[in-house]
Specification:
There is one protein chain. The protein is of the alpha+beta class. The chain contains four helices and twelve strands, in the order H-E-E-E-H-H-E-E-E-E-E-E-E-E-E-H. Strands 1, 2, 3, 4, 5, 6, 7, 8, 10 and 11 form a ten-stranded mixed beta sheet that branches. A two-stranded antiparallel ribbon has the order 9-12. A hairpin with a 2-residue loop joins strand 4 and strand 5. The protein is globular and about 50 Å long. The N terminus and C terminus are likely disordered.
């Protein structure tokens, strides 16, 4: 593969929010808020139906990927938070990372799904984020701009995704699990901008599972992130792999820094491979 690649200059949009964000309860309280509808919606009934179906499809795809064996070690990280990858016939290379975060499932769900506009405050990879539309209580449209990656070899991209989540409660232990899945989409409120490269996400996800309290009695959650994206442009696969691995490492590191005084959360054992 050629070492040449095309990556236009990137950056972060400013003052482009078209929709207000949702208010949530303070940390350490139960999260009960859901995003309020953004009205009037510019979507037709058919457009909304297709986006809702795409959101549900992303959940099915993610659950299928997570159930597969064959995840291989892609890159080792600190605190045993390693990046793994698997090849999918439809979407190509899919990455994931897993770690234990000293936070409740409610707090993490609020950070990832509810507090969209606050993502740049704690996630070092995100330059700008906003909720563009709300389709129902479990589905929305989110716009995100990410910073340059791979030492500037990959300029900042923007992404537009439909996100859908499901919440389950274990019958045996009563523990809570959130699966937030997303996939690239189109929306009239966010056309492609000439000054940015619009990346296209495949199945992405953030899985939050309640764990028994740690030795200090603090709440803990098992956090998993799945990433699959087409960055567009002529970029060598090795650079793409490096950039996507960095995004996952930065996500875990940012959450550990936000919730752990030492930023030293650990990860569980490596997933099985075949």
């Amino acid at each position: 593969m050629s070492s040449a690649f095309y990556s236009p200059m990137g950056g972060s949009p400013e003052n482009r929010s078209l929709a207000g964000d949702v208010q949530v309860l303070p940390r350490k309280q139960t999260v009960v808020d859901v995003p309020a509808p953004i009205v009037p919606s510019p979507l037709t009934t058919d457009q909304k139906k297709l986006l809702l179906e795409r959101g549900q499809s992303s959940l099915l795809v993610i659950n299928g990927l997570l159930a597969r064996s064959g995840w291989k070690l892609e890159k080792q990280g600190k605190n045993d938070s390693h990046v793994y990858s698997i090849h999918d016939k439809r979407f190509g290379k899919v990455f994931k990372i897993q770690g234990i975060i000293h936070a409740s499932t409610a707090d993490l769900f609020a950070d990832i799904y509810l507090r969209v506009k606050d993502l740049p405050k704690w996630n070092s990879s995100v330059a700008h984020s906003e909720r563009v539309d709300v389709l129902d209580d479990h589905t929305d449209i989110c716009y995100v701009c990410v910073n340059d990656q791979a030492g500037g070899m990959v300029s900042g991209r923007d992404f537009l995704d439909v996100r859908c989540y499901e919440k389950t409660v274990s019958e045996s232990e009563g523990t809570i699990k959130y699966v937030i899945a997303s996939m690239g989409c189109e929306h009239v409120r966010k056309p492609v901008l000439s000054e940015f490269v619009r990346g296209v996400n495949g199945p992405n996800a953030w899985i939050i599972e309640a764990m028994p309290p740690g030795p200090d009695g603090e709440e803990r959650s098992l956090f998993t992130s799945v990433l699959n994206t087409d960055l567009k442009g002529w970029i060598p696969q090795s650079i793409v792999d490096q950039a996507l691995s960095t995004v996952l490492f930065d996500l875990i590191k940012s959450l550990q820094k936000k919730y752990s005084p030492q930023g030293g959360a650990t990860a569980p054992g490596a997933p099985s491979s075949s």
